[in-house]
Structure formats: C-alpha cells, structure tokens
C-alpha cells in the first residue's frame, strides 16, 4: 500500500462558504479563461484544481498518481491566523466537518487530517477534542508559526501537551501569506522561505524546551524538515560553544530525532541522507499534491534513494498507519 501523508483538499462546501463571506477572510474565487482561481487579499493566488473539491475527483487523481490512500489535509492557504479568532474558530469547525465528510465518502482510501484556529489556543484545544472525540480524526495540520508567533511560545504549551495526551499527529506546514522581504524574485518566498520557516520552528521547539518537556509529542516537519536535517551539526555545535543556545539537558541531535518528516526532498540523495540521520521509522511518504511544488512520483524518489525494502515499506505506508490511523476496512499490517 502507498499512503500519501501530505495531500491537500479544499472541499466545495468551503469554497461556497468563502464565496458567501468575502469580507471576513478576503478570499475571492474567480472563473477565468484558464480555469477557476482563488485570490487572497495578501496578494497571492492559485488555481482551484478539480481534485481539491470533491472525493470523486480526488480519487481519480490518486489513481493517476498511483496512490492507494491519502491523508487529506486542508490547503495551508486556509490558515487564517490574522482573522478574528471567533470567526476563524467557526470557519475551522466547518472545515473540519467538511474534511470528515470528504473521508466518509470513501473511508477505505481516505484518512482525515483537520486543522486548528491557532490564534486562540483555548479554542484550538476544544477543536482538537472535537476532532478526536466527535469526528474520529487524530491528525492536524498547523502553521510553522502563528502569524509571527513561534509554536514554542508558552501560550501554545497546553495545546501541544493535550495533543500528546490524545496521541494526535501534528503536521506542521509553512504559513504562506504572500511574498517575504528579500525573497520576492524567482519564487524564493516558497523555494527558500518555506523551508526556512520550518527550520526556524524546529530550532525554537528544540532550544525552547518543547521537545524535552513533551517527549511523546508526534510532530512532523513538512518538506523533509526544510534545511534543518542538513544543518543539524551547526545547531549541535552552537549548543556546545554558545551560551545562548545552551538551553537543553539532552543532546540537541537526540531532540531533533524526535521529529517526524515527510519525503518531499525532490532529490533521492537528500532523502537517503535524511533517513540516515533520523531513521526510517521517522519518515512518511508525502507529495504536497496538487500544488506545482509537489513530488508527483514519490515512489520513484524513494526507490532511487537506494533504501532497503524494509525501510521503503515503513516510509511508504507502515509509519502512516501507525502514527495517523488505518483506513476503515483496512488492517494495519498491510
């Protein structure tokens, strides 16, 4: 079985909701000659791909990309952390229900991953419990920062502790809201800015004490951890020689190995190196479909990395089944 643990949707019901209330979130849906486009007030836009919208279209796309099961998560463009907290809490509730309904249409091939209204930690705890106890969803995708506030900030500690208690898998994803200063040309806001955001978050979670304080936290770094796996030696060295970074009792590299990672490296050698650092047990297959930065042939990347069959089996399916959940009607030993 091939399970894609990083696959996005924007259910049709959510598009309808955004269309009906353009003022709250500043999102506009336009029908153009080239197709439907979603535009945000921050100045960025993207195509509304068919497979975002309905289960039938998603399943057809999965067949095309040879993916057996997808863990479907909301598009990160739906992180409205700058919006009114109450309005966003209501929106997130509707979004999570839509994700659950999406999964219910084909529960043997789809697994749900919700999201949280992170600008309100209290509302996020309530939504986390709603996901687990009412919708049966044990995975969430949240931003690498909350409109500039790091996830390691003490205000989010109760939420992270509750997620660990509930054994909820957290996929962190860069919070995209327009171009970043100095990275405007060449699409560098995404090419460099997104993996940089993930790297900064990981460092904060390590040096800020989260990975020591909550050792059973199941938190995943998207896009193969950004730059962090390939500069972990620099963090280790800094921890040894700089007093500002001497904040941990456990070795920095041991704390780093507590994270989970997807496979989106776009390079088999980079993926092999990642697995050599953190172990195959901490890597899950991911694509980022349907965006243009997706790895649309993740098994080719995995096979070309030269990993063993046992490691590929863990990465392609077994880790996701263990960490996120099993599709209804499918046994975990597939």
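-> sequence recovered:
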């Amino acid at each position: 079985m091939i399970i894609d643990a990083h696959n996005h949707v924007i259910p049709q019901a959510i598009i309808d909701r955004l269309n009906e209330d353009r003022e709250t979130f500043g999102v506009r849906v336009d029908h153009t000659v080239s197709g439907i486009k979603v535009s945000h007030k921050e100045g960025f836009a993207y195509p509304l791909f068919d497979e975002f919208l309905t289960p039938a279209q998603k399943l057809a796309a999965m067949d095309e990309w040879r993916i057996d099961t997808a863990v479907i998560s909301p598009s990160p463009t739906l992180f409205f952390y700058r919006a009114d907290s109450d309005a966003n809490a209501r929106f997130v509730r509707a979004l999570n229900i839509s994700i659950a309904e999406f999964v219910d249409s084909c529960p043997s091939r789809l697994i749900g991953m919700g999201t949280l209204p992170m600008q309100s930690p209290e509302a996020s705890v309530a939504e986390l419990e709603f996901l687990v106890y009412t919708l049966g969803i044990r995975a969430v995708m949240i931003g690498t920062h909350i409109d500039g506030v790091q996830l390691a900030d003490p205000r989010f500690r109760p939420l992270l502790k509750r997620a660990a208690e509930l054994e909820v898998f957290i996929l962190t994803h860069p919070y995209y809201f327009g171009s970043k200063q100095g990275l405007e040309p060449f699409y560098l806001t995404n090419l460099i800015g997104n993996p940089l955001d993930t790297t900064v978050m990981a460092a904060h979670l390590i040096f800020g004490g989260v990975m020591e304080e909550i050792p059973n936290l199941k938190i995943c770094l998207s896009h193969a951890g950004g730059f962090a796996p390939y500069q972990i030696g620099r963090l280790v060295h800094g921890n040894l020689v700089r007093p500002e970074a001497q904040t941990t009792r456990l070795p920095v590299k041991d704390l780093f190995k507590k994270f989970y990672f997807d496979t989106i490296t776009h390079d088999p050698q980079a993926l092999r190196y990642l697995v050599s650092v953190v172990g195959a047990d901490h890597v899950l297959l991911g694509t980022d479909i349907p965006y243009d930065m997706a790895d649309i042939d993740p098994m080719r990347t995995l096979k070309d990395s030269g990993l063993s069959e046992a490691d590929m089996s863990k990465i392609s399916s077994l880790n996701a089944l263990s960490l996120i959940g099993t599709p209804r009607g499918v046994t975990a030993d597939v």
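The radius of gyration is 19 Å.
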